[in-house]
Every structure is written in C-alpha cells, then in structure tokens.
Design goal:
468 residues; mainly alpha; Arc Repressor Mutant, subunit A; 47% helix; binds glutamic acid
Length: 468
C-alpha cells in the first residue's frame, strides 16, 4: 500500500501556524513512508472562501518547502461528483429528503434541552417521501444501533455509540454539499490512506466512517493532532501575536527554523531539539506524537531561529536576508557582499529583520548615533585620536583590514594611549553604535570613502557639542 496523505485547508484566512503544523506532519508522514502528499482546498463555503486566502496558503506552503505531489484540488470543481454520490445514497435509501421547518427543529431542540437530552434530529422525515421539487435538505440515514470504533494513531481507540450521532445534513437546501460528505468522497476518490488533522475534527470522524461504510468505501487510518495553546492556556489565536506563517516570514524567521519549531510542537524524539528537514523525514513517526496540547513559545522559536541564522550556509542566509534589506530601502548590490555581512554579523541577531537593521550601516550612512554610544565614544577626548586616524587612514595605499589595524595601532602609540581610546570613538563614528564585529574588518567592509566621511561627521559632532 502506498501511503497517501493530504492537507485540506478551508481558504477563509491566512495559513495559520496550526494549519502549517498539520501540513508538516502530513507531509513528513508521506515522505517518511515514500508516499504521496496532496493539497486539497476545501472552498465549499462560498461566503467565507476567498482567492486571496488560497494564494496565502499556496505561498505559505511554498515558502516552507512543503511541496505537494498532487493538487491543489478545489472542492468547488467537484460538485457534480458530490451530487452523484448524494443521489446514489438517496436511491439506495441510505439518505432521505427532509423539509422540517426551522421552527420545528427549534422546538424539538428546546424540548430535548428541557428534558436534559443531547439535541439531535429525531428522524421525522425518514419515511415521509418528501417531494423533491419542494425546498428540502438531504440527510444521511445514520445507523440506530451499534458503536463506531476506530484506532486513532495518536489518541488510541475511540468508541462512539451511534445513538450519539444523528442524521447528518449532507446537502443543504441551496443544493450545496456539506463538509462531512465532501471530505469522505474526496478522501476515497483521492486514495487517502492516512487522515492527519487537528483534533477539532475528532467528532466528525465517526460520522465520516459511517458515511464511508454506507458507500462501501475503504476507511483510512486517522491521526488527530493535539491543539496548540497560547501562553495563557487558551487555543492559539491572533490575540497571542503573529499566527500567520507569512507574518513569520516578514518578521525575519527562516523557513528551516519555523519547520523545526513546528515539528517539536506535539512531536518529540528523545531530547533532541534541532532537526534538519532530512532528519525529520527520517525520524518522524505518528507514534511519538503527544496526546496532550502543546504551548506555543515565542522565545524558543527565536532561539531556534538564531541557531539557523548562525549555522546555515551564509550564502543561503544572505538570499533570505536580501528582502529584509529591501524593506529598509537598501539595495545590497550597492555595498559589501551580503554574504560577508552575514558572516560578520550573524552571531548578533535572532531574526533576519534584526540582522538587516544592525547591518544597514554597511550600506548607508545612519541617521543618528545611538545616544548611549555617542555619549561614551564621542567625547572631546576623542577628537585627537579621530583626527590623527583620519589623516593616516586617508593616506593608506591598500584599504584592507591588516593595514587599517596597523594604522590604528600606530595612532594609539603616537598618542601614547591604549587601543580602546582610538578604537571606541572610531567604532561609534563608523557604525553609529550598531553591534558590529572587529573594527578593522568593519571598516574594510564599509569602505574608505564612507569611513572618512563618517569620521569627519564625528569630528564635527564633537566640535559642535563642545562649542554649542
Ligand atoms: N477543511 C478542514 C479545515 O480547514 C479540514 C478538514 C479535514 O482535514 O478533514 O479545518
């Protein structure tokens, strides 16, 4: 049997981290077992589904690298097929038309509630032969007796008595099929062997199994993933901050980091925290998925992100960093090689947005000094070292870190001061106070013209402060 899994989002918003985690687990399971992974867009709710949201889902999947082998399939393109199946059920007497009014259903509900019973449809129309030309819905005739039993690959054996399940609407009065029917038809038609989804769907599973069995279709395996909670113990939502995958991209997270973080939300493999995608594919197993909910922890995500910024190939990080430089109106082609900047700065940032911000000074003059750095570095005592350094640097033959370093040492020696008395003011002059690596390297990368211009500016700044 070839494993086949699917991710089946409803396009009513962006791709949420919870959805991305479901997609990742389904993708990993398929990859792990040499199977196929498909993408199905469940867009039957015409009021709430939007093209924009479909695009956001596709974009998020691409960014995360969760490539699908088939699809995207759109449920709205398959209405004929769903209707064919509903008609078959009607013909076989496994479904029936119902024209119960809203008032009748409401009254029934109230009576059941008053008697402390679980509200459910009473089968009133089961044998009434409702006229197909009059407004009606179609209901599935659920079994009255027996129990639905399935072995959830995460939760273990689940039993639900048929007396708990009522006759589900499978076609609305406007002729559109409902969620449980479309999912069942699609999972069967698409040959899905393992349904991996959020546990908010666990109550639908027995209904779907009954429908599949009535249709004589194979029942897939099911795995329901535990919820993701915010730090306050409530289901993770917008209230807790960014939940959209693409927002994480814009905030400067690496896809490798988000995937690594998401795989650990509900799955573990010993104490290991860091997993490359290849490792995840090799090690992932549904039997190691936790039953209990996981809590989203932004600090940990930041830690993992920093890990990948530090460890991944600098050329790769530079490619991902480039758009963040663009967000600051910086064209990395107009300055030092961005790969070198990544190598120089990557220990100092938790996100690419942060890395871009602390690296802007390589490409353009900063607007203002960091006030603390200026207070410490740009004092009257710094004038002499700055002036002498400027003079000697202007005369250098080669603008390379070794030569720059030698000049700065010569300045300290000539003025009989420690290296810091020269280095500190220069660093503030050149970087504005941004975190930066060794001064000679920083200056080499910033370039001679910009360094001299910025030293002049610092000299002027101190002189104005003194006179003003
Ligand atoms: N479309 C459903 C949702 O977005 C998922 C259905 C399923 O996985 O069976 O929640």
């Amino acid at each position: 049997m070839t494993v086949k899994t699917r991710f089946a989002p409803s396009p009513t918003g962006y791709l949420h981290v919870g959805g991305a985690r479901t997609a990742l687990f389904s993708w990993l399971f398929a990859r792990r077992h040499g199977g196929k992974f498909i993408l199905r867009i469940e867009d039957t709710d015409l009021e709430r589904s939007t093209q924009e949201s479909v695009n956001a889902i596709l974009e998020g999947m691409t960014w995360l690298g969760l490539e699908y082998d088939e699809g995207p399939f759109y449920q709205t393109h398959r209405f004929d097929r769903y209707n064919e199946v509903i008609d078959q059920l009607l013909e076989k007497g496994l479904a029936y038309r119902c024209d119960c009014s809203r008032e009748r259903l409401e009254k029934l509900r109230e009576e059941q509630m008053a008697r402390k019973l679980k509200p459910r449809y009473d089968g009133h129309c089961r044998n009434r032969n409702v006229d197909p030309d009059k407004p009606h819905v179609v209901r599935f005739r659920n079994l009255d007796e027996g129990t639905v039993v399935f072995r959830d690959l995460v939760r273990g054996t689940i039993r639900v008595s048929n007396s708990e399940l009522d006759d589900l609407i499978i076609r609305r009065s406007d002729g559109s099929p409902t969620y449980n029917l479309t999912v069942v038809v699609d999972d069967a038609d698409m040959g899905i062997t393992h349904v991996i989804r959020g546990d908010d769907h666990i109550n639908n599973t027995p209904r779907q199994i009954n429908l599949l069995q009535a249709l004589g279709l194979p029942v897939p395996e099911y795995a329901h993933l535990p919820m993701i909670l915010g730090p306050d113990g409530q289901r993770l939502s917008k209230r807790h901050g960014a939940v959209s995958v693409m927002q994480y991209m814009r905030d400067g997270f690496l896809p490798e980091a988000l995937l690594n973080y998401l795989v650990r939300l509900g799955w573990s493999h010993g104490d290991q925290e860091i997993f490359s995608v290849d490792e995840m594919v090799e090690l992932f197993d549904l039997s190691e998925v936790n039953r209990s909910p996981s809590t989203f922890n932004t600090e940990k995500l930041l830690w993992i992100n920093q890990h990948y910024i530090k460890r991944l190939d600098p050329a790769h990080v530079a490619r991902l960093l480039s758009p963040h430089m663009g967000d600051l109106d910086i064209d990395p082609a107009e300055g030092p090689d961005l790969v070198k900047v990544v190598e120089a700065q990557r220990e100092r940032a938790q996100t690419l947005a942060e890395l871009a911000a602390i690296s802007a000074f390589y490409y353009r003059d900063f607007d203002d000094y960091d006030p603390k750095a200026a207070k410490k570095g740009l004092r009257p005592a710094a004038l002499e070292p700055l002036k002498l350094a400027r003079e000697k640097l202007a005369g250098l033959d080669e603008w390379r870190r070794e030569e720059i370093h030698a000049v700065l040492q010569a300045v300290a020696k000539a003025l009989e001061v420690g290296f810091g008395k020269v280095g500190m003011p220069l660093r503030v002059a050149v970087t504005g106070g941004s975190p930066s690596p060794d001064l000679d390297l920083t200056m080499e990368m910033v370039g001679r013209a910009a360094c001299l211009r910025r030293i002049d500016r610092a000299i002027e700044y101190i002189e104005n402060a003194v006179s003003g």
